[in-house]
Amino acid sequence: MSSVAGTLFTISTFGESHGPAVGVVLDGCPAGFEIDLEELQAELDRRKPGQSHLTTSRQEPDRVEILSGLFEGRTLGTPIAMMVRNVDMRSQDYEGFSQAYRPSHADFTYHAKYGFRTPHGGGRASVRETIGRVAAGAIARQILRKELGIETIAWVESIGNIDSQAIKNPPQSREQVDSNLVRCPNEIAAKKMVALVEEARAKKDSVGGTLGVIVRNVPPGLGDPVFDRLEADFAKASLSIPACKGFESGSGFEGTRLFGSQHNDSFIPKENPREGATETMPAPNVETKTNFSGGIQGGISNGMPILCRLAFKPTATISQPQDTVNDRGEATELAAKGRHDPCVLPRAVPIVESVFNLVLMDAYLRQRAQTPEWWLRYRKNV
Protein backbone atom coordinates (compact mmCIF):
# COMPACT_ATOMS: atom_id res chain seq x y z
CA MET A 1 0.00 0.00 0.00
CA SER A 2 1.66 3.20 -1.18
CA SER A 3 0.29 5.39 1.62
CA VAL A 4 0.84 2.97 4.52
CA ALA A 5 4.07 2.56 6.51
CA GLY A 6 5.12 0.54 9.54
CA THR A 7 4.70 -3.02 10.84
CA LEU A 8 3.20 -2.67 14.33
CA PHE A 9 3.16 1.12 14.69
CA THR A 10 1.52 1.92 11.36
CA ILE A 11 0.45 5.13 9.67
CA SER A 12 -1.79 5.75 6.68
CA THR A 13 -1.73 9.30 5.34
CA PHE A 14 -4.46 10.87 3.23
CA GLY A 15 -5.34 14.07 1.37
CA GLU A 16 -3.98 16.32 -1.39
CA SER A 17 -2.31 19.70 -1.28
CA HIS A 18 -5.38 21.53 -2.63
CA GLY A 19 -8.06 19.21 -1.27
CA PRO A 20 -10.25 19.91 1.77
CA ALA A 21 -7.79 18.40 4.27
CA VAL A 22 -4.75 16.22 4.86
CA GLY A 23 -4.10 13.86 7.73
CA VAL A 24 -3.17 10.47 9.09
CA VAL A 25 -4.60 7.38 10.74
CA LEU A 26 -2.15 5.98 13.30
CA ASP A 27 -2.76 2.38 14.32
CA GLY A 28 -0.95 0.14 16.78
CA CYS A 29 -0.23 2.80 19.37
CA PRO A 30 -0.28 1.19 22.85
CA ALA A 31 -3.04 2.30 25.18
CA GLY A 32 -2.66 4.50 28.22
CA PHE A 33 -0.02 6.97 27.07
CA GLU A 34 -0.70 10.59 27.97
CA ILE A 35 -0.16 12.75 24.89
CA ASP A 36 0.79 16.41 25.18
CA LEU A 37 -1.40 17.95 22.48
CA GLU A 38 0.32 21.35 22.73
CA GLU A 39 3.66 19.69 22.00
CA LEU A 40 2.07 17.85 19.08
CA GLN A 41 0.79 21.13 17.66
CA ALA A 42 4.20 22.72 18.16
CA GLU A 43 5.70 20.05 15.88
CA LEU A 44 3.24 20.97 13.15
CA ASP A 45 4.04 24.65 13.67
CA ARG A 46 7.73 23.93 12.99
CA ARG A 47 6.74 22.38 9.64
CA LYS A 48 4.02 24.75 8.47
CA PRO A 49 4.46 27.25 5.60
CA GLY A 50 4.79 31.01 5.95
CA GLN A 51 7.28 30.90 8.83
CA SER A 52 9.62 33.50 7.33
CA HIS A 53 10.57 35.24 4.09
CA LEU A 54 12.71 32.18 3.29
CA THR A 55 9.69 29.91 2.94
CA THR A 56 6.55 29.77 0.82
CA SER A 57 4.11 32.59 1.51
CA ARG A 58 1.17 30.17 1.71
CA GLN A 59 -0.57 30.90 5.01
CA GLU A 60 -1.88 27.78 6.69
CA PRO A 61 -2.63 27.57 10.43
CA ASP A 62 -2.20 23.77 10.29
CA ARG A 63 -4.30 23.25 13.42
CA VAL A 64 -4.65 19.56 14.11
CA GLU A 65 -8.03 18.00 14.85
CA ILE A 66 -8.03 14.70 16.77
CA LEU A 67 -10.93 12.65 15.46
CA SER A 68 -10.46 9.39 17.37
CA GLY A 69 -8.18 7.31 19.54
CA LEU A 70 -7.77 9.62 22.55
CA PHE A 71 -9.82 10.08 25.70
CA GLU A 72 -8.92 12.75 28.24
CA GLY A 73 -5.52 13.05 26.57
CA ARG A 74 -4.64 9.35 26.77
CA THR A 75 -4.32 6.85 23.96
CA LEU A 76 -7.05 4.20 23.80
CA GLY A 77 -5.10 1.63 21.81
CA THR A 78 -7.53 2.16 18.91
CA PRO A 79 -6.70 4.00 15.65
CA ILE A 80 -5.80 7.66 16.18
CA ALA A 81 -7.17 9.78 13.34
CA MET A 82 -5.75 13.30 12.96
CA MET A 83 -6.71 15.89 10.36
CA VAL A 84 -5.52 19.34 9.27
CA ARG A 85 -7.77 21.42 7.03
CA ASN A 86 -6.38 23.27 4.00
CA VAL A 87 -7.52 26.91 4.04
CA ASP A 88 -5.19 28.93 1.79
CA MET A 89 -5.37 27.21 -1.59
CA ARG A 90 -4.93 29.22 -4.78
CA SER A 91 -5.83 26.63 -7.37
CA GLN A 92 -6.04 29.31 -10.06
CA ASP A 93 -2.24 29.61 -9.94
CA TYR A 94 -2.03 26.10 -11.37
CA GLU A 95 -4.51 26.38 -14.26
CA GLY A 96 -1.67 26.67 -16.77
CA PHE A 97 -0.34 23.28 -15.64
CA SER A 98 -3.48 21.33 -16.51
CA GLN A 99 -1.94 20.15 -19.78
CA ALA A 100 1.78 20.95 -19.42
CA TYR A 101 4.14 18.91 -17.26
CA ARG A 102 6.25 20.88 -14.77
CA PRO A 103 9.95 19.93 -15.02
CA SER A 104 11.18 17.58 -12.25
CA HIS A 105 7.66 17.29 -10.76
CA ALA A 106 5.48 14.22 -10.50
CA ASP A 107 2.98 15.55 -13.09
CA PHE A 108 4.14 13.27 -15.91
CA THR A 109 4.82 10.15 -13.82
CA TYR A 110 1.43 10.34 -12.05
CA HIS A 111 -0.27 10.81 -15.42
CA ALA A 112 1.66 7.87 -16.88
CA LYS A 113 0.77 5.65 -13.92
CA TYR A 114 -2.90 6.49 -13.34
CA GLY A 115 -4.06 7.95 -16.65
CA PHE A 116 -5.18 11.20 -15.04
CA ARG A 117 -4.00 13.58 -12.33
CA THR A 118 -4.88 16.70 -10.38
CA PRO A 119 -3.27 19.82 -11.87
CA HIS A 120 -3.75 21.79 -8.63
CA GLY A 121 -0.61 21.85 -6.55
CA GLY A 122 1.35 18.65 -6.20
CA GLY A 123 -1.56 16.48 -5.05
CA ARG A 124 -0.19 13.51 -3.11
CA ALA A 125 3.34 14.42 -4.21
CA SER A 126 3.11 17.72 -2.33
CA VAL A 127 5.04 18.27 0.87
CA ARG A 128 1.66 18.93 2.55
CA GLU A 129 1.25 15.15 2.66
CA THR A 130 3.98 15.11 5.32
CA ILE A 131 1.65 16.81 7.82
CA GLY A 132 0.32 13.36 8.71
CA ARG A 133 3.81 12.02 9.27
CA VAL A 134 4.72 14.94 11.52
CA ALA A 135 1.54 14.53 13.60
CA ALA A 136 2.09 10.78 14.06
CA GLY A 137 5.82 11.30 14.58
CA ALA A 138 5.08 13.75 17.40
CA ILE A 139 3.25 10.99 19.26
CA ALA A 140 6.09 8.55 18.61
CA ARG A 141 8.59 11.12 19.88
CA GLN A 142 6.75 11.58 23.17
CA ILE A 143 6.51 7.84 23.80
CA LEU A 144 10.15 7.18 22.90
CA ARG A 145 11.30 9.97 25.21
CA LYS A 146 9.16 8.77 28.12
CA GLU A 147 9.92 5.07 27.71
CA LEU A 148 13.57 5.05 26.63
CA GLY A 149 14.88 8.61 26.88
CA ILE A 150 15.44 8.76 23.10
CA GLU A 151 15.85 12.21 21.55
CA THR A 152 16.06 12.88 17.81
CA ILE A 153 17.56 16.14 16.52
CA ALA A 154 17.87 17.12 12.85
CA TRP A 155 19.51 20.26 11.48
CA VAL A 156 20.53 21.91 8.22
CA GLU A 157 24.07 20.74 7.52
CA SER A 158 24.60 22.52 4.21
CA ILE A 159 22.83 24.67 1.64
CA GLY A 160 24.33 24.90 -1.82
CA ASN A 161 28.12 25.09 -1.42
CA ILE A 162 27.94 26.40 2.16
CA ASP A 163 28.82 23.64 4.63
CA SER A 164 28.38 24.08 8.38
CA GLN A 165 30.55 21.09 9.42
CA ALA A 166 28.08 20.62 12.30
CA ILE A 167 28.12 16.87 11.62
CA LYS A 168 31.49 16.82 13.43
CA ASN A 169 29.95 18.45 16.51
CA PRO A 170 26.18 17.79 16.40
CA PRO A 171 23.82 20.16 18.20
CA GLN A 172 22.76 19.31 21.73
CA SER A 173 19.21 20.62 21.53
CA ARG A 174 16.46 21.55 19.09
CA GLU A 175 16.47 25.05 20.58
CA GLN A 176 20.02 25.40 19.27
CA VAL A 177 18.81 24.34 15.81
CA ASP A 178 15.78 26.65 15.84
CA SER A 179 17.82 29.70 16.85
CA ASN A 180 17.92 31.00 13.25
CA LEU A 181 15.76 30.98 10.10
CA VAL A 182 17.62 28.19 8.30
CA ARG A 183 17.86 25.87 11.34
CA CYS A 184 21.63 25.54 11.14
CA PRO A 185 23.46 25.34 14.51
CA ASN A 186 26.55 27.07 13.08
CA GLU A 187 25.65 30.76 13.28
CA ILE A 188 28.39 31.90 10.89
CA ALA A 189 27.35 29.38 8.24
CA ALA A 190 23.67 30.15 8.91
CA LYS A 191 24.10 33.81 7.93
CA LYS A 192 25.74 32.79 4.66
CA MET A 193 22.94 30.29 4.02
CA VAL A 194 20.26 32.93 4.55
CA ALA A 195 21.99 35.17 2.02
CA LEU A 196 22.21 32.33 -0.51
CA VAL A 197 18.51 31.45 -0.16
CA GLU A 198 17.60 35.13 -0.53
CA GLU A 199 19.74 35.31 -3.66
CA ALA A 200 18.04 32.24 -5.14
CA ARG A 201 14.61 33.70 -4.43
CA ALA A 202 15.54 37.02 -6.02
CA LYS A 203 16.61 35.16 -9.16
CA LYS A 204 13.33 33.18 -9.16
CA ASP A 205 15.43 30.08 -8.57
CA SER A 206 15.96 27.54 -5.78
CA VAL A 207 18.76 25.79 -3.94
CA GLY A 208 19.24 22.39 -2.24
CA GLY A 209 21.44 21.00 0.51
CA THR A 210 21.85 18.37 3.21
CA LEU A 211 20.38 17.63 6.63
CA GLY A 212 22.14 15.97 9.53
CA VAL A 213 20.32 13.76 12.06
CA ILE A 214 21.48 12.47 15.43
CA VAL A 215 19.49 10.17 17.71
CA ARG A 216 20.79 9.93 21.26
CA ASN A 217 20.08 7.42 24.05
CA VAL A 218 19.11 4.61 21.68
CA PRO A 219 19.55 1.30 23.50
CA PRO A 220 21.31 -1.57 21.72
CA GLY A 221 19.04 -4.13 20.08
CA LEU A 222 16.65 -2.13 17.88
CA GLY A 223 16.33 -3.25 14.27
CA ASP A 224 16.44 -6.65 12.60
CA PRO A 225 18.96 -8.51 10.46
CA VAL A 226 18.92 -8.70 6.66
CA PHE A 227 15.82 -7.06 5.15
CA ASP A 228 14.61 -4.96 8.10
CA ARG A 229 17.95 -3.47 9.03
CA LEU A 230 17.48 -0.29 11.03
CA GLU A 231 19.42 1.88 8.60
CA ALA A 232 17.46 0.39 5.69
CA ASP A 233 14.21 1.41 7.37
CA PHE A 234 15.62 4.90 7.99
CA ALA A 235 16.69 5.11 4.35
CA LYS A 236 13.27 4.15 3.01
CA ALA A 237 11.50 6.57 5.36
CA SER A 238 13.91 9.36 4.42
CA LEU A 239 13.77 8.83 0.67
CA SER A 240 9.97 8.83 0.80
CA ILE A 241 10.08 12.52 1.78
CA PRO A 242 9.50 14.81 -1.22
CA ALA A 243 12.78 16.21 -2.61
CA CYS A 244 15.01 13.79 -0.66
CA LYS A 245 17.51 12.29 -3.11
CA GLY A 246 20.21 10.73 -0.94
CA PHE A 247 20.83 8.99 2.39
CA GLU A 248 23.92 7.87 4.26
CA SER A 249 24.52 6.56 7.78
CA GLY A 250 27.61 6.79 9.92
CA SER A 251 30.70 7.56 7.88
CA GLY A 252 28.67 7.15 4.68
CA PHE A 253 30.53 7.78 1.44
CA GLU A 254 33.46 9.39 3.28
CA GLY A 255 34.13 6.05 4.94
CA THR A 256 35.13 4.59 1.57
CA ARG A 257 38.32 6.64 1.76
CA LEU A 258 39.56 4.84 4.90
CA PHE A 259 41.28 1.51 5.51
CA GLY A 260 39.48 -1.03 7.66
CA SER A 261 42.02 -0.49 10.42
CA GLN A 262 41.01 3.16 10.49
CA HIS A 263 37.28 2.63 10.09
CA ASN A 264 36.58 -0.17 12.59
CA ASP A 265 34.91 0.97 15.83
CA SER A 266 36.86 -0.58 18.72
CA PHE A 267 34.80 -1.67 21.73
CA ILE A 268 35.67 -0.22 25.14
CA PRO A 269 34.09 -0.59 28.61
CA LYS A 270 31.11 1.71 29.08
CA GLU A 271 31.96 4.68 31.27
CA ASN A 272 28.56 4.69 32.99
CA PRO A 273 27.29 1.08 32.98
CA ARG A 274 23.56 0.62 32.69
CA GLU A 275 21.87 -1.55 35.28
CA GLY A 276 18.97 -3.91 34.70
CA ALA A 277 20.62 -7.16 33.63
CA THR A 278 18.74 -10.43 34.01
CA GLU A 279 19.96 -14.01 34.13
CA THR A 280 19.17 -14.62 30.48
CA MET A 281 20.20 -11.14 29.29
CA PRO A 282 23.45 -9.97 30.89
CA ALA A 283 24.07 -6.26 30.45
CA PRO A 284 26.55 -5.66 27.61
CA ASN A 285 28.05 -2.57 29.18
CA VAL A 286 30.21 -1.61 26.24
CA GLU A 287 30.53 1.31 23.89
CA THR A 288 32.76 2.10 20.95
CA LYS A 289 35.83 4.32 20.84
CA THR A 290 34.75 5.83 17.53
CA ASN A 291 31.38 5.87 15.79
CA PHE A 292 32.00 5.38 12.09
CA SER A 293 29.14 2.84 12.17
CA GLY A 294 26.73 5.62 13.10
CA GLY A 295 25.21 3.66 15.99
CA ILE A 296 24.13 0.69 13.86
CA GLN A 297 25.99 -2.57 13.21
CA GLY A 298 24.53 -5.54 11.38
CA GLY A 299 21.32 -3.56 10.99
CA ILE A 300 20.87 -3.37 14.79
CA SER A 301 21.49 -0.40 17.09
CA ASN A 302 24.62 -0.76 19.22
CA GLY A 303 23.86 1.88 21.85
CA MET A 304 25.96 4.65 20.33
CA PRO A 305 24.31 7.76 18.87
CA ILE A 306 22.69 7.13 15.49
CA LEU A 307 24.11 9.57 12.96
CA CYS A 308 22.78 10.03 9.40
CA ARG A 309 22.81 12.59 6.61
CA LEU A 310 20.18 13.26 3.94
CA ALA A 311 20.44 15.11 0.63
CA PHE A 312 17.62 17.33 -0.67
CA LYS A 313 17.45 18.61 -4.23
CA PRO A 314 16.66 22.24 -5.13
CA THR A 315 12.92 22.93 -5.07
CA ALA A 316 11.48 21.90 -8.44
CA THR A 317 8.96 24.77 -8.54
CA ILE A 318 10.69 27.92 -9.79
CA SER A 319 9.34 31.05 -11.45
CA GLN A 320 11.78 31.09 -14.36
CA PRO A 321 10.44 30.10 -17.80
CA GLN A 322 11.31 26.46 -18.53
CA ASP A 323 11.04 24.21 -21.54
CA THR A 324 8.60 21.31 -21.24
CA VAL A 325 5.91 19.43 -23.17
CA ASN A 326 2.14 19.18 -22.84
CA ASP A 327 0.10 16.00 -22.48
CA ARG A 328 0.01 15.69 -26.27
CA GLY A 329 3.80 15.59 -26.43
CA GLU A 330 4.12 19.07 -27.95
CA ALA A 331 6.94 21.39 -26.93
CA THR A 332 5.91 24.39 -24.83
CA GLU A 333 7.16 26.69 -22.11
CA LEU A 334 5.90 27.53 -18.63
CA ALA A 335 6.85 29.46 -15.52
CA ALA A 336 5.39 28.67 -12.12
CA LYS A 337 2.99 31.17 -10.59
CA GLY A 338 2.33 29.33 -7.34
CA ARG A 339 3.97 29.95 -4.00
CA HIS A 340 6.95 27.79 -3.16
CA ASP A 341 10.00 27.44 -0.92
CA PRO A 342 13.23 28.63 -2.54
CA CYS A 343 14.88 26.05 -0.25
CA VAL A 344 13.07 23.15 1.41
CA LEU A 345 15.76 22.42 4.00
CA PRO A 346 14.54 24.52 6.98
CA ARG A 347 11.00 23.06 6.86
CA ALA A 348 12.33 19.55 6.23
CA VAL A 349 13.97 19.43 9.67
CA PRO A 350 10.80 18.48 11.66
CA ILE A 351 9.70 16.12 8.86
CA VAL A 352 12.97 14.18 9.06
CA GLU A 353 12.82 14.02 12.85
CA SER A 354 9.28 12.66 12.61
CA VAL A 355 10.01 9.87 10.14
CA PHE A 356 13.03 8.79 12.20
CA ASN A 357 10.85 8.64 15.32
CA LEU A 358 8.21 6.62 13.45
CA VAL A 359 10.85 4.08 12.40
CA LEU A 360 12.25 3.88 15.93
CA MET A 361 8.81 3.48 17.50
CA ASP A 362 7.99 0.61 15.17
CA ALA A 363 11.35 -1.05 15.89
CA TYR A 364 10.78 -0.56 19.62
CA LEU A 365 7.40 -2.31 19.57
CA ARG A 366 8.78 -5.17 17.45
CA GLN A 367 11.65 -5.65 19.89
CA ARG A 368 9.30 -5.61 22.89
CA ALA A 369 7.14 -8.27 21.28
CA GLN A 370 10.07 -10.47 20.31
CA THR A 371 12.16 -10.18 23.48
CA PRO A 372 10.10 -9.00 26.48
CA GLU A 373 13.09 -9.08 28.83
CA TRP A 374 14.87 -6.55 26.64
CA TRP A 375 12.08 -4.08 27.33
CA LEU A 376 12.32 -4.56 31.09
CA ARG A 377 16.04 -3.92 30.93
CA TYR A 378 16.14 -0.83 28.76
CA ARG A 379 12.92 0.91 29.68
CA LYS A 380 13.77 4.24 31.25
CA ASN A 381 13.95 4.29 35.07
CA VAL A 382 13.68 0.49 35.36
CATH class: Alpha Beta
Q: What is the H-and-E element order?
A: EEEHEEEEHHEEHHEHEHEEEEEEEHH
Measured as a percent range, the helix fraction is 25-40%
* Radius of gyration (Å): 22 Å
Could you report the average pLDDT, rounded to the nearest whole number? 90
Strand order of the largest sheet: 1-2-3-7-4
Strand tally:
18
Shape: globular
* CATH domain fold name: Chorismate synthase, AroC fold
Most strands sheet: 5 strands, antiparallel
SS content category: alpha+beta
Count of helical segments? 9
Question: Any key phrases for this structure?
Answer:
5-stranded antiparallel beta sheet, 382 residues, 27% helix, alpha+beta, Chorismate synthase, AroC fold, 9 helices
Characterize the structure shown.
This protein has 382 residues and is an alpha+beta fold. It has a single domain (4-378), classed as Chorismate synthase, AroC fold. 27% of the residues lie in helices and 21% in strands. It contains 9 helices and 18 strands. It has helices at residues 37-47, 107-114, 130-148, 174-177, 187-202, 230-239, 260-263, 345-370, 372-378; strands at residues 4-5, 10-15, 21-27, 64-68, 70-71, 74-75, 80-85, 151-159, 162-163, 209-216, 244-249, 267-269, 286-288, 296-297, 300-301, 306-312, 322-325, 331-334. Strands 1-2-3-7-4 form a 5-stranded antiparallel sheet, with helices on one face. It has a 5-stranded antiparallel sheet with strand order 9-8-10-16-11. A hairpin with a 2-residue loop joins strand 5 (70-71) and strand 6. Helix 1 crosses helix 3 and helix 8 (345-370) packs across helix 9 (372-378). The longest helix is centred in the last third of the chain and has 26 residues, at 345-370. The radius of gyration is 22 Å and the shape is globular. The mean pLDDT is 90.
